[in-house]
Amino acid sequence: MSNREKVLEVKDLYVTFNTIAGKVHAVRGVDFDLYKGETLAIVGESGSGKSVTTKTIMGILSRNANIERGEIMYEGKDLTKIPENDFVKVRGSKISMIFQDPMSSLDPVMKIGKQITEALILKENTTKEEAKKKAIELMKAVGIPQAELRYEQYPFQFSGGMRQRIVIATALACDPDVLICDEPTTALDVTIQSQILELIKKLQKERGLSVVFITHDLGVVANLADRVAVMYAGKIVEYGTTDEIYYDPAHPYTWSLLASMPDLNTSSNDELYTIPGTPPNMIYPPKGDAFAARSRYAMKIDFEKQPPMYKISDTHYAASWLLHPMAPKVEMPSILKKRIEVQTGKREA
Asked: CATH homologous superfamily of domain 6-225?
């Protein structure tokens, strides 16, 4: 990976929100790199800081947010330091985003064609005729039938899946280098979900896009991501290649996420693995490992001191005291161990 071109670099990012209840520590020291043409998935429960991280990259945080420290490096510039006038040239043109709910991303009283061409006319100084031609090409590229006819229609005339395709077309209008997908399939049913994932994968390959894919569901990104970062309570607790995260996970939180996911061998009589408790209140972030209170593997040190990032391989790191040489040897949940053994057996066969 190191010989590939680095497109985006997030270094030691801290983001807080001022609220009536107190200061919320939403992102606490996040680091990751994004390489050209790869898909990086950021996975974690709601409230883990995934969306805040990507909104910081896009420069669309709410007014009560503060970037306490850290850098977001893109094309030699730190995006946390550049003025809004310069950010406008990056947002949508170089780094684009697909949001969770297509209906809230589209203007209900504006025709679809106008919504796609708006970005082109504004940012690319394109004529209306050229913009319309490109918009229709994009609509075809994202799989919208009768694109010329549908160009003149309104969002309510499209299904949820088709609306999300329009949102993708709009995000790609200015040929960005980086595409951020913030849970783009959550509002869709499973069949449509899989079509949208395949579409993102196809467009990424065709256009050489670098993709950051945000999700709470590890199952969604199994065939999509090159690397996975697992996030909990504002921190990345484990990251590695997709195979390392799925077949050799090291952090108890990653174990819990994977074990609680049903697979094709799960029957209706099987009891699903559950993660006890709830995520911590980030107004009062925990002193040690934030997952300790919910982990059956927690040791005394987990409640007192944050674990460092331990290197497991050149591409695989995890922040867990279980990786300390003096830690007791523990096994991942038996349901997950069994599943990994079955899956690795199938892969080798």
From this structure: P-loop containing nucleotide triphosphate hydrolases (3.40.50.300)
